[in-house]
Design goal:
- Strands 1, 2, 3, 4, 5, 6, 7, 8, 9 and 10 form a ten-stranded mixed sheet that branches.
- This protein is of the alpha/beta class.
- Strand 5, helix 6 and strand 6 form a beta-alpha-beta unit.
- The protein has two domains: 164 residues, Bordetella uptake gene, domain 1 (D-Maltodextrin-Binding Protein, domain 2, 3-Layer(aba) Sandwich); 122 residues, Periplasmic binding protein-like II (D-Maltodextrin-Binding Protein, domain 2).
- The chain is 46% helix and 20% strand.
- The chain starts with a helix and ends with a helix.
Length: 331
C-alpha cells in the first residue's frame, strides 16, 4: 500500500513538473515571438515635402537601414503644418516598430506650445536617435560694412531696430537665434520671417535684407558672396573652420535644427533598441559623416536615451524663449 502511495505521489510530482515545463516553454516561445523583429517592410515617414533636407538624409540612410534590418524600408511623405501633420499621425500609429517618422527640433517643442491643437505633445515623440544638426549662423553680404560680429553689434546698438535679419519662419531655429542674440547683446533687430531658407538666402544675396540667420548647408554654398560672422555651434564647424563660434565671441548661443527619427509612444524597448543599433551604425559611419559635412550638416550620434535627455533640455530653453516671444506680442 505504501509503495502504491509513493508511486502515486511520484506520478503527481512528475505531471506537475511536466505541466510547469510546458508553461515555461510556452512563455519562452511568446517572449521569443515578442522580440522577433523585423519580419516585414518598415515605413519611414518624412513629415515634409520630398527633396528637402529631411528627405535627403532619409534617402542616404535607406540602403544601409535595409542592410542592417534585413527588410525593405519604404520612404513616404506626410507634409503639412510644418511637420505637425506627420507627427500627429505618428503618435496614433500601432507601436509595433513598422512605422517611424523623422522629427525636427525645435519644431516638435514649439508647435505644441504655439498651438494646443497641434495633434501631438512633445513627450509623445518617442526618439530612436538624433543623427544630424543644421547649425544656424549669422551671415551678411560680401560687400557689407560689417566684417566682424563686433561691427554688427555696434551698428545695431547705434540704431536700434534698423538692421534687417532674414530667416525661415517664425519660432524656428533662425528666429530663436535672432532672439537670443538680441537678448545677450542688448540690441534690437528687425527680424523678417520668410517662407523658407531658400527665399531668405535669395533676399540676402539680392540685397533685400542686411543680414541672415541662416542654415549651415546654405552658408557653405556661397563663399564668394557672403561673410559668416558667427556660428552657433559648441565648437568650430568643420565645414566653416575659419568662422568663430558665437561663444568664442562672448555670446553663449547654440542653436540648430536637429534631425532624428522616432516611433509611436509605447513601442517595445526591444524594438527601439534594434532600430537604435541600425541608426547608430549609420551615424558612426565615416563615409556618411564625410558626406554630411560636405553638404553643410553636422553629423551627430545620439542614441534613444541621449535623444530623450536632449529633447528635455531643449524644451526648457525653448519654452522660456517662447514665453518671451508671447510676452512681446502682447505689448
Amino acid at each position: 500500500m505504501k509503495k502504491l502511495k509513493y508511486l502515486l505521489l511520484a506520478s503527481i510530482l512528475l505531471l506537475a513538473f511536466l505541466v510547469a515545463g510546458c508553461g515555461s516553454s510556452t512563455k519562452d516561445q511568446k517572449a521569443e515571438k515578442k522580440v522577433e523583429y523585423p519580419t516585414k517592410p518598415i515605413t519611414y515617414v518624412i513629415p515634409f515635402d520630398a527633396g528637402g533636407q529631411s528627405d535627403i538624409e532619409a534617402r542616404r540612410q535607406q540602403p544601409l537601414l535595409e542592410k542592417y534590418l534585413g527588410q525593405p524600408v519604404t520612404i513616404t511623405y506626410k507634409p503639412g503644418g510644418g511637420g505637425a501633420v506627420g507627427w500627429a499621425e505618428l503618435v496614433k500609429q500601432k507601436p509595433d516598430g513598422y512605422y517611424m517618422a523623422g522629427f525636427n527640433i525645435p519644431h516638435i517643442i514649439l508647435q505644441p506650445l504655439e498651438r494646443k491643437d497641434a495633434g501631438y505633445k512633445t513627450e509623445e515623440i518617442n526618439p530612436v536617435a538624433i543623427f544630424q544638426k543644421t547649425i544656424i549662423g549669422l551671415a551678411v553680404p560680401k560687400n557689407s560694412p560689417y566684417n566682424t560680429l563686433e561691427d554688427f553689434i555696434k551698428a545695431a546698438k547705434a540704431k536700434p531696430g534698423s538692421i534687417t535679419v532674414g530667416g525661415s519662419g517664425t519660432l524656428t531655429g533662425p528666429h530663436l537665434f535672432t532672439l537670443l542674440l538680441e537678448k545677450q547683446a542688448g540690441i534690437k533687430l528687425q527680424y523678417i520671417p520668410f517662407t523658407g531658407a531658400a527665399p531668405a538666402t535669395q533676399a540676402l544675396l539680392g540685397g533685400h535684407s542686411q543680414a541672415m540667420a541662416g542654415n549651415s548647408d546654405d552658408l557653405v554654398k556661397y563663399p564668394d558672396k557672403i561673410k559668416v560672422l558667427g556660428i552657433a555651434s559648441a565648437d568650430r564647424f568643420k565645414a566653416l573652420p575659419d568662422v568663430p563660434t558665437m561663444k568664442e565671441q562672448g555670446y553663449d548661443i547654440q542653436v540648430s535644427v536637429d534631425r532624428g527619427v522616432a516611433v509611436p509612444p509605447g513601442t517595445d524597448p526591444v524594438i527601439v533598441k534594434k532600430l537604435e543599433e541600425a541608426f547608430m551604425k549609420i551615424a558612426n559611419d565615416e563615409n556618411i559623416k564625410a558626406q554630411m559635412l560636405k553638404d553643410g550638416f553636422e553629423p551627430v550620434a545620439m542614441n534613444a536615451e541621449q535623444s530623450k535627455k536632449y529633447i528635455e533640455e531643449r524644451t526648457k530653453v525653448f519654452t522660456e524663449l517662447y514665453k518671451q516671444v508671447a510676452a512681446e506680442k502682447k505689448q
